[in-house]
Amino acid sequence: MLPASPGALDSVDPALDDRIARVLAFFRAYDQRLGPPGPDPSADSHALSEARVIGDLAHRDDATVAGLARRLGLDPAQVGRIVRRLAELGDVARSPDPEDGRRRLLSLTGQGRHEFRTRQAVTRRRVAALLEELPPTRQERLAASLDRAREVLVDEPDSEWALRGPLPGELGWIVQAHARIYTDEYGFDGRFEGLVAQIVADYSARNDVALERCWIAEHLGRPVGSVMAVRHTDDIAQLRCLIVDSAARGLGIGRRLVAECIDFARSVGYARMMLWTVDILPSARRIYEAAGFELTSETPDRLWGRDLVSQHWEREL
């Protein structure tokens, strides 16, 4: 079959032609405001393809050349050459797959993670400069629109819900939802609402968007979940205020909220993430374990009118 001529799509399907024009208009606007995607080439010591490999490995514990090629849309032989070069530079480590000795599992070295964080910092500064030109309401509209676009492109099964930043009034929703759910389901008294209110107030007062972040899960047009990643120390981020309304459980929202926290904390340079919880939340425990958290300590406690066990969990980033 011969390739289509440059104008072959014109007038064949007017609706499709219109959508093509709108997508191209978005890319033109993006290029005018932010430039090519990714870090500034002048600040990047790696070629674009190498940088893409580093970016993919930064979000995976064990990858393979075949998996990288599939996700990045590159030829496996090309990816193999890129991996060999990055290994020679000291950015990538290769280890035997215990389940298949013919394969090598790939991961970033400490140097590779430093390279990734350096590139991420450049990218974040460029995006921050763009967003700072917009008022907060337009910033949130842009972020929410891109959430929807990403869901369409990757065909996510959870497309009826999305994560976004909190809209005006929704920090208050976090407090109300925690108070309602923990009172109804676990019998906590009013002191628990006061604790959550203080956590939310402290987050709002610091307003440290470079090192802290809050997400709201929206389902069918209303908030149904939340989580926060906040600074605990210079090296440790803390996961706080994870909750999912009973009407939206079973959709994978809790796991996605925790994953967003981990990815954010890693991207801004934290070395570890911790959280504090109590022992009567089995669903949350399963989510934390699946996300790589390990229980580091637990202590009997009397909290919010109940005898509980306080638990501390941590994981490396």
Automatic annotation (TrEMBL):
Superkingdom of the source species: Bacteria
Q: Where in this chain does the record put each N-acetyltransferase domain? A: 132-317
Q: Which UniProt keywords apply?
A: Transferase
User: Which CDD domains does UniProt cross-reference here?
Assistant: NAT_SF
**Residues in domain HTH marR-type?**
1-151
Q: Which InterPro entries match?
A: Acyl_CoA_acyltransferase, GNAT_dom, HTH_MarR-typ, NAT_camello-type, WH-like_DNA-bd_sf, WH_DNA-bd_sf
Instruction: Please identify the protein, giving its name as recorded.
Output: Helix-turn-helix domain-containing GNAT family N-acetyltransferase
User: What organism, scientifically named, is this protein from?
Assistant: Gaopeijia maritima
